[in-house]
Amino acid sequence: MSWPDGRRGALSVTFDNLGEAAEIQLGADPELGEHESVTRSLPLVLEVLERHGVPATFFVEGLNAEVYPDALRRIDRAGHEVAYHAWCHEQWGELSPDEEGENLRRGMEALGGLGLEPRGFRPPGGETSERTLELLHEAGFTYVSPAGERAGAGVVPFRWPEVDAFHVLPVFEEQRKEILGDSEAGGVEAVREHLLGAVRRVADEGGHAVLVLHNGMIEMEDEVVDELLGEARNRHDAGDLWLARCDEMANWMNENLPDG
Fold first, then answer.
1. Partner of 210 for a Cys bridge, out of 7, 17, 158, 202, CB 3.0 to 4.6 A?
2. CATH classification of 4-256, choosing from 3.20.20.370, 3.30.230.10, 3.30.43.10, 1.20.1250.20?
């Protein structure tokens, strides 16, 4: 299978989380409005994306529409996609169907109040329920980005080894052991190995990859992110790779791939 313009592979660059939402979900009670992932990290992320000419999708929690509306507008004005990542980073696989539906409604309403119309959803934790796809369709979403291997109509998945935090945070120890055979965190070098490897794999062999980065980690991995985006842009310019936001990728998949 070839992608648009006959390119062998396709790549989506994504960023998860913004502001205090994930910390709140872990039980913290931070003061809202001055989180470094917004005030310090987001400008660095937007600058490196602009420098390499790479479009990205930002999966943000709906709470940010109330706390950081200008930041979300800035992402949108820069040409990137603003997509949904639950209201306050709730672990999606633990919600009831009623809670899912209310969470989606609340997020769409808040983001819509900023003139944003999210079409994509990534569940925190990577898992969906039996009703998630139906609820997303009812709420007006066109795709979901869960953990998984198979892309298809309405599904733009990511793989855990292509998530930067997977190689850094202790919470992923068990998953690292299961997937990689070693629970130890590989740190920035593992981020480079797996994410850069994904860029080169799909450019050389075909298929689709989604890179998952986090604003708050940009200063720790700035050189790696710069290298990743540079490689992606070079392979795009060489005609090997299609670089696209997740909504653009999903639109193409919805027209050209069978149901996932």
1. 158
2. 3.20.20.370
